[in-house]
Design a protein that fits this description.
The chain folds into 2 domains: 138 residues, Aspartate/ornithine carbamoyltransferase (Rossmann fold, 3-Layer(aba) Sandwich), CATH 3.40.50.1370; 150 residues, Aspartate/ornithine carbamoyltransferase (Rossmann fold), CATH 3.40.50.1370. Helices cover 41% and strands 14% of the residues. Helix 2 packs across helix 12, helix 5 packs across helix 12 and helix 6 runs parallel beside helix 7. Bound molecules: phosphoric acid mono(formamide)ester and norvaline (NVA). The site of phosphoric acid mono(formamide)ester has 9 residues, from helix 2.
Length: 305
């Protein structure tokens, strides 16, 4: 197994499936309040260069529920790559901690952090990808759609870090993944090409949300302007007209289709209130599963399970 978890496809399909099974098992233990403290006397350093609710709380709560201590390091504490180079931060934190989780802007910085850290490094989102989110998403799909095979996922919106994670997942798990984005906001073409060439899944980019959602089991969206791009929101609103997930768009998917969003959502932009509050929305189950999935990821990386 790789020392770090920086991309979903850092893991083989078998490693991924084993981690999903472990997540289900550990979730049950936590729900039953069983005494289970594999991270007793362990600490996790969490570096955040960007804001976060889910990632911070799920990692911190998860690690402490497993008996360990998690330390939050905000932008004012460690300005990785500015106050100190990543290679120095990596070795300093490895001296105190058993694991490092980082949410950064530039993906190259987390790669450098991992290269120089002697302990496992977990990607809690970069401008490029969000692997923990996508692992939690497939756990949620497994629980609520009931299967991980023959799935059609329709993503509507910006070709961003979430899309890159889906594309990289498609090289490990056979999927039909369609991204509907405005012409100027496509996913990274290299990542798209790699996913296509891998030949395991059907991956497509379209500019028509209605085409994308046809026969979809899952309709997924994310904010139109990610962290670091918020200043572009007004301009983006013009380009993303027609890319809102509405009840009408949902009704063009399978009747059993679920709605997913990594959150935080900007209601009224990428998705309407009605869809967010509809019975088919599994967004809060998705958010909760961040903790259970990440617990399994950390246990696997630490060699505890
Ligand atoms: N989905 C997610 O990563 O949420 P936060 O930005 O709140 O951590
Ligand atoms: N694409 C979003 C995801 C937030 C969890 C962002 O990067 O801001």
């Amino acid at each position: 197994m790789n020392k770090d978890f920086l991309h979903v496809d850092d893991w083989t399909r078998d490693e991924m499936m084993a981690a999903l099974d472990l997540a289900v098992e550990v979730k049950k233990k936590l729900k039953n309040r069983e005494a289970y403290t594999p991270f007793k006397n362990h600490s996790l350093a969490m570096i955040f260069a960007k804001p976060s609710a889910r990632t911070r709380v799920s990692f911190e709560t998860g690690f402490s529920r497993l008996g360990g201590h998690a330390i939050y390091l905000g932008p004012a504490d460690i300005d990785v790559g500015v106050r100190e180079p990543a290679r120095d931060v990596a070795r300093v934190l490895s001296g105190y901690n058993d694991m490092i989780m980082a949410r950064l802007f530039d993906h190259a910085i987390i790669v450098e952090l991992a290269r120089f850290a002697s302990v496992p490094v977990i990607n809690g989102l970069t401008d490029y990808n969000h692997p923990c989110q996508i692992m939690a998403d497939i756990l949620t799909i497994k629980e609520h759609v009931g299967r991980l095979h023959d799935l059609k996922i329709a993503y509507i919106g910006d070709g961003n870090n979430i899309v890159h994670s889906w594309l990289r997942l498609s090289t490990r798990l056979p999927l039909h993944f369609t991204c509907a984005c405005p012409p100027n906001y496509p996913p990274d073409p290299v990542t798209f090409e790699i996913a296509k060439q891998a030949g395991l899944s059907t991956v497509e980019v379209t500019h028509d949300p209605l085409v994308a959602v046809k026969d979809a089991d899952v309709v997924y969206t994310d904010v139109w302007a990610s962290m670091g791009k918020k200043h572009e929101l007004e301009e983006r609103k013009r380009h993303f007209k027609g890319f809102t997930v509405t009840p009408k768009l949902m009704s063009a998917a399978k009747s059993s289709a679920v709605f997913m969003h990594c959150l935080p959502a900007q209601r009224g932009l990428e998705v309407t209130d009605e869809v967010m509050e509809s019975p088919g929305a599994i967004i809060f189950q998705q958010a909760e599963n961040r903790m259970h999935m990440q617990n399994a990821i950390m246990l696997k990386l630490a060699g505890k399970a």
